[in-house]
């Protein structure tokens, strides 16, 4: 165990209330949280189109931006309204964010992924106009899948995701063998972790360090990205939510004692 009998677990969420909540959760589970933000949100100031038959949201951040209620003041201040469009959310956290901002939620796929939403909508989108509102790093699977189903797809980039210049402390800890766990919430956090490690000159050592730690990821796409990069994934929770991921990682670390 890394320090004071508490597992040291790195978390890479954006430096806002999500990171604060993640650190609090990990600490409540008995871990020593290592906050190392790998993403920052840069709003584009745009809103989804208003003439779509379906509107798809993929994140809580996107919902906050269209609602005009970003806590940091980023993005447009006016509220977007869906009109008669069918509102779709990938994942319960996105659906909860929509409801919290007084938007209705019409469709949530059983599988919280791009492919899951394509399967959920199926023949319903043939000939329909589908608006996909998300970040600049969204999976192409969603767009191509909807197009293959016969939809007319338009993508609106609500925000861009960048890597903070000072990211990478967790990579150095991993390289030193001082990291017991890591929780990756997207493919981009994986890629940014590896890029930060390379910039600090500890790329190979960080990968070796992760081999000795419990690596948890949300969803199969993130697992695939990590595996392709040479990272062995130990935990993929059945529920694609951060709480489930954090609990599973800490439990897996404890089991290694």
Key features of this structure:
257 residues; alpha/beta; Rossmann fold; 2 domains; five-stranded mixed β-sheet; four-stranded parallel β-sheet; 9 strands
Structure characterization notes:
The chain is an alpha/beta fold. It folds into 2 domains: 8-39 and 164-255, Rossmann fold, CATH 3.40.50; 41-160, Rossmann fold (3-Layer(aba) Sandwich). It is built from 10 helices and 9 strands. The chain has helices at residues 17-28, 60-67, 92-100, 114-121, 140-148, 169-175, 187-199, 203-211, 220-228, 242-255; strands at 8-11, 32-35, 40-43, 54-57, 86-89, 129-135, 152-162, 181-184, 214-217. Strand 6 (129-135), helix 5 and strand 7 form a beta-alpha-beta unit. Helix 6 (169-175) crosses helix 8, helix 7 (187-199) packs across helix 8 and helix 7 runs parallel beside helix 9 (220-228). The radius of gyration is 19 Å and the shape is elongated. The termini are close together.
- Bin the strand percentage: 15-25%
CATH-scheme architecture of the largest domain: 3-Layer(aba) Sandwich
Q: CATH first level of the largest domain: which class? A: Alpha Beta
Helical content (DSSP H or I, runs of 4+): 25-40%
Supply Rg: 19 Å
As for the CATH topology of the largest domain, it is Rossmann fold
* End-to-end separation: 8 Å
Please specify the SSE layout and strand pairing.
Blueprint: E1 8-11, H1 17-28, E2 32-35, E3 40-43, E4 54-57, H2 60-67, E5 86-89, H3 92-100, H4 114-121, E6 129-135, H5 140-148, E7 152-162, H6 169-175, E8 181-184, H7 187-199, H8 203-211, E9 214-217, H9 220-228, H10 242-255
Parallel strand pairs: 1-2, 1-8, 4-5, 4-6, 6-7, 8-9
Antiparallel strand pairs: 3-7
Helix pairs in contact: 2-3, 4-5, 6-8, 7-8, 7-9
């Amino acid at each position: 165990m890394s320090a004071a009998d508490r597992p040291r677990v790195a978390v890479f969420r954006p430096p806002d209330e999500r990171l604060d909540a993640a650190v609090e959760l990990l600490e409540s589970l008995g871990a020593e949280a290592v906050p190392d933000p790998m993403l920052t949100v840069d709003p584009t100031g745009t809103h989804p189109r208003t003439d779509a038959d379906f509107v798809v949201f993929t994140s809580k951040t996107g919902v906050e931006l269209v609602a005009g209620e970003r806590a940091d003041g980023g993005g447009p201040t006016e509220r977007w309204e869906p009109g008669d469009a069918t509102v779709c959310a990938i994942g319960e956290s996105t659906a909860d964010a929509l409801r919290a901002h007084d938007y209705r939620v019409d469709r949530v796929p059983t599988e919280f992924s791009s492919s899951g939403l394509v399967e959920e909508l199926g023949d319903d989108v043939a000939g329909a106009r589908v608006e996909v509102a998300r970040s600049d790093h969204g999976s192409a699977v969603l767009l191509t899948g909807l197009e293959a189903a016969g939809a007319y797809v338009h993508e609106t980039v609500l925000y861009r995701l960048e890597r903070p210049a000072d990211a990478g402390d967790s990579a150095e800890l991993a390289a030193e063998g001082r990291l017991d766990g890591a929780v990756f919430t997207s493919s981009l956090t994986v890629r940014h972790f590896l890029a930060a490690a390379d910039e600090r000159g500890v790329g190979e050592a960080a990968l070796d360090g992760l081999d000795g730690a419990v690596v948890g990821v949300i969803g199969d796409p993130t697992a695939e990205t990590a595996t392709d990069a040479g990272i062995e994934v130990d935990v993929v929770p059945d529920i694609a939510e951060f709480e489930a991921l954090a609990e599973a990682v800490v439990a897996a670390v404890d089991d290694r004692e």
